[in-house]
Amino acid sequence: MVTKVADWLNERLGWRAVWTAVFARQAPKVNWFYTLGSATLFVGITQIVTGILLTMYYVPTPDHAYDSVIYITTQVPFGWLIRGIHHWGSSAMLVLCVLHLLRTYLFGAYKYPREITWLTGVVLLVIVVGFGFTGYLLPWDQKAYAATTVGTDIVNVVPVIGPYLLRIARGGQDISALTLTRFFGGHIWVLPVALAGFIGVHIYLVIRNGISAPPRKDE
Ligand code: HEM
User: Which of 6, 82, 133, 165 has the lowest CB atom count within 10 Å?
Assistant: First the structure.
């Protein structure tokens, strides 16, 4: 019965070819260093799941943001766990992403024909840092306020357009309700959409070009 349904769908969707290309393709024997990209992807998926759960209770306004985070941590069943995973997951993702970058650099995996895989990777790293930066403000505590003040001040020193960039980053001259709203919007909409798009291209290229590991004598 299941095979019949699978065959019926395959005739119409051609899903078996996609499955084989993604999960059953020929790959050279690799070592643990080659798992860092998949590890980053796994933590990224965990971040999306825990992030979606957090938005069920988090309120992105100056009046309620801090209280809603305390509520999540102390009242919501397993809220402390979900928040904890999301909190530590953000650091883990950045560390894994940088280790993955170092692996691909040191193994020369950025060279022909993988230059665009590398370039999409650079954009992914910027997006991951963006997640950390925008997420840090969301608890709306003193640490978050101070960190975002310093962080957004940095764009102010860009020659000529610095003050404009600062106003765009903060939604005004100072950190305010507008800053919180745009950081929240960036954190849960703009960056996730960009992340999904660039991961899609990145993984497509990994499949298209194959893993860079040199084949061994018997392969
Ligand atoms: C969200 C961040 C990222 C995710 C989820 C991700 C995911 C992956 C995965 C699953 C692979 C295949 C397995 C592997 O080689 O580990 C891969 C390969 C690759 N990644 Fe990333 N990556 C990310 C960031 C980066 C960064 C920051 C760079 C470099 C600037 C980069 C450059 C590459 C390159 C050059 C390859 C090809 C490696 C090879 O063929 O040996 N990636 N990535």
Answer: 6
